[in-house]
Specification:
Layout (H helix, E strand, L loop, with lengths): L15 H15 L22 H7 L18 E5 L16 E5 H7 L16 E4 L4 E4 L5 H14 L4 H16 L4 H7 L1 H9 L4
């Protein structure tokens, strides 16, 4: 399940260690880059994580962890978001557990910022949705501090910008208009399904 609803971490693929981690760690060692330190400024490293992008897309059902909408792998919009930025901690560059499936738009907005809530450790019902407009907002029952963190995530990722609103509203409207199965809505956008379910509209 995804978008700003809890995402369950999926097991590391059997061949991940061979095709990503070992190659990556050997590369960092060769370059003299310390694993427990930030990458040296303006240092680019080998993107071995790209070798597991198809695995990541399959493991998370093709749903962007931040936008919460399914996207096809063949469209080329998939990307590996390093939740802990590579620039912050080099040793996390080649770790499956640090990867979040993200569409290229969300990944480019998150960048190296550390003020975005981690979908792996998100409390349920932190984000609410106005289905008719696509407006996303913090659960009004949250205490002030967690509500502010939810607001920061919305702002940082642009989750409530007009394009994101239009997408969510359109997906829900199409679900209604074409009388689509709720399981299809769940596959297409788990967050919209979750909110429709919470609001008793499925």
């Amino acid at each position: 399940m995804a978008e700003m609803i809890p995402v369950t971490a999926q097991p590391e693929p059997a061949d991940f260690d061979a095709k990503v981690r070992k190659k990556g760690l050997a590369y960092l060692n060769k370059k003299g880059i310390l694993l427990d330190q930030p990458l040296p400024e303006k240092t680019a490293i080998e993107p071995y994580w790209c070798h597991c992008l198809t695995d990541l897309h399959q493991a998370y059902g093709g749903v962007c962890a931040y936008l919460g909408v399914f996207f096809e792998r063949v469209m080329g919009a998939s990307s590996v978001d390093h939740f802990i930025a590579k620039s912050t901690l080099a040793g996390q560059a080649y770790e499956w557990s640090n990867y979040r499936l993200a569409c290229s738009t969300m990944n480019s907005r998150k960048r190296e910022y550390n003020d975005v809530l981690d979908p792996f450790f998100l409390a349920p019902n932190s984000f609410w949705l106005q289905l008719s407009t696509g407006h996303i907002y913090p659960n009004p029952h949250l205490a002030a501090q967690p509500r502010r963190i939810v607001e920061q995530t919305i702002e940082r990722l642009g989750l409530d910008d007009p394009a994101c609103r239009e997408l969510r509203a359109r997906l829900y409207q199409e679900y209604l208009e074409y009388q689509l199965p709720s399981v299809y809505l769940k596959k297409l956008s788990p967050f919209i399904w979750c909110e429709a379910n919470r609001q008793g509209l499925l």
